[in-house]
Structure formats: structure tokens, C-alpha cells
Amino acid sequence: MEDAPSVLVLGIGNLLWADEGFGVRAVEEFDRLYETPENMRVMDGGTQGIYLVQHIRETDILVVFDAVDYGLPAATIKVVEGDEVPAFLGAKKVSLHQTGFQEVLAMAAMMGDYPRRLLLIGVQPEELEDYGGSLRPAVRDRIVPAIGIAVDWLARQGVAVKRRAEPLAEDETLASREMRIGLYESGRPRPEDACRIGDARILQGGGFCAPENYESEIDRLLHSRGGQG
Questions:
Q1: What was the pLDDT predicted at 206?
Q2: What's the pLDDT at 1?
Q3: Closest CA to 15 of 168, 171, 185
Q4: Tell me, what's the pLDDT at 61?
Q5: 8 A C-beta contact, residue 50 and residue 107
Q6: What is the pTM of this model?
Q7: For helices 22-33 and 143-156, what crossing angle results, to 10°?
């Protein structure tokens, strides 16, 4: 009897950049709602980039949730499969983690351990430049439909997951305590107490002027520190 394929359901992204956290929140909810067979792992890949390569090499069937800038209306879900996945991840990068994940796929391919089947479920972000923010409501509403797409696709690959009789409590999910969505959202300071996109006291009113040459400025600072004491 043939061994069961190794299956990985992976969410990538940065929870601190509003809709960029879609992939991570999606796998948290997947884990909360579904029991999985022994041959399946559900993982928060965060922004680990190339550190995920060994996990990819060990995987036969891979599902990835992510926020991807497809140039579509906000909160649009787009599904990409197979060899098209790396191209879509690189078309317009939302953040550095996508560059890293492209490299992961390329490295796995070079090592001869590329997943046999690969699915990317991406959502078009609405807002990214809200540091410390959470998902916008329209993007958050796409989590359950995105999970449904994954479950249906996995079933077509012969991989079945079972809906939990009772969803896991928030403190039982994949999220660390500090990043649980309820605590994360309720504990956020007010806008007047914590700037969302940069410190206006520095960036406005001529209080900040970028150096003309950053490398020269760094050299100057290093030499000045080296001459002290």
C-alpha cells in the first residue's frame, strides 16, 4: 500500500502590517475549525522565508495562504495552482517575505524535493501601511471562504479534513498568546497614543532630513564611535 502523501497547509505574512497578516490568520482559523489527519501539518510560516525550505522539501501537497497584490479590487480572492505560483508571488511583492518564499520554492526545486501539487490562495490586501493594525473587515471576511477553497481542493487530491464538533478556543489555536487576534486587537493603543504610519513629530515640519548618501553617513557614524573613549 502506498504511503499517504505529506501535506502542509501554510500561512505566510506579517501580522503587524494589517492585511499582510491574512495568511497567518487563515491558518489559525483553519486549525481552529478542522481536525486534520496524521499526514497533514498546519503551520504559521510568518516571515521565515528560506528557513521554511526543509518543511517544503518534506511536503508532497502544499497549500499556501497569503496576501498577494494581484492588482484586483480589495479583498478579492485569487487561486493559483502549480507552476504559476512562484510567478504570482513575484509579480508585485507585498513584502520581503514573498521574496523569501520564492527562494524557498526555487531551493526546493534545485534540491529535487519540490511539492507534487501546489496551491496558492491569495487575497488582495486593502491596507498595509497600518503598522500594528489588524485585518480590514472585508479581508477578514475572506478567511472562511478561502479555507473552504482549500478544503475542497484537498478533497480532490484525496486528502480529507473533518470539521471539529466544537471549534478550538482562541487560547488553543496556533497563535502565540501575544498575537491571538482578540488580545491583539483589543490591546492596540489609540491612534493618538501610537502613530500608525510613522512619527509625524519627526517626518513633518522639516524635523527630519534624510542623508544624501546613506553609506557615507553610516561610515561617518561608525568612525566617530570608533574614535570615542
A1: 54
A2: 38
A3: 185
A4: 97
A5: yes
A6: 0.80
A7: 60
Q: Which helix or strand (DSSP H or E) is residue 215 part of? A: helix 214-226
Instruction: Give the pLDDT confidence score for residue 229 in this predicted structure.
Output: 47
What whole-number distance in Å separates Cα of residue 90 and Cα of residue 195?
Answer: 30
Structural domains in the chain (count): 1
Say how far apart CA 208 and CA 109 lie, in whole Å: 46
Q: Is residue 30 part of a domain?
A: yes
Q: What's 94's domain CATH number?
A: 3.40.50.1450
pLDDT beneath 70: ranges in the chain? 1-2, 89-100, 194-211, 214-215, 217-218, 221-222, 224-229
**H/E stretch holding 67:** strand 61-67
Contacts of 174 (CB under 8 A, 6+ apart): 27, 28, 31, 42, 43, 44
Question: What is the Cα–Cα distance from 164 to 36, expressed in whole angstroms?
Answer: 9
Q: Compute the mean pLDDT over every residue in the chain, rounded to the nearest whole number.
A: 83
Q: Is the dihedral angle over the CA atoms 42, 48, 49, 51 positive or is it negative?
A: negative
Its domain, for residue 77, covers 7-186
Flag whether 216 is in a domain: no
Collapsing DSSP states into helix, strand and coil, what is residue 198?
Answer: coil
- Domain membership flag for residue 194: no
Q: What CA–CA distance (Å, rounded) separates 68 from 60? A: 23
Q: How far is CA 43 from CA 12, 35, 173, in A?
A: 9, 14, 11
For the chain, report the end-to-end CA distance as a whole number of angstroms.
72
Within a domain: 176: yes
> Judging by DSSP bridges, how do beta strands 40-46 and 162-163 pair with one another?
unpaired
